[in-house]
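[retry 2/3] Sec-independent protein translocase protein TatA: previous attempt timed out, resubmitting with same input.
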Amino acid sequence: MPNLGPTELIIIGLILVLLFGAKKLPDAARGLGRSLRIFKAETSKLRDDDDADAPTATVVQAQPQPAAPAPQPLTTAAPAPSAEEQARVLEEQAARLRAQAGAPKPQ
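[retry 2/3] Sec-independent protein translocase protein TatA: success.
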């Protein structure tokens, strides 16, 4: 990226003033600063989480294997419910939870 000289920076500043107006520029800069602060905090939390999740050395002892269980007779599983059936079940559960909470039903 080429270096920006003072004349280029002045031109960019004038364009920003023309686009946003002199009154809105401080608010925009403040919002940008808040966004950057939040972004930095979140990325530092991610780094801290990665450090905390680092694996630690553990000693695992082998357990004796139990005898093999008797074979179970083969049974056919019920077919998986369709997406419409799953949606209907979820709607019924939501309605029950709303009724338990005493919340009005959404329109």
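[retry 2/3] Sec-independent protein translocase protein TatA: Residues 6-52 form one domain.
[retry 2/3] clearing retry counter.
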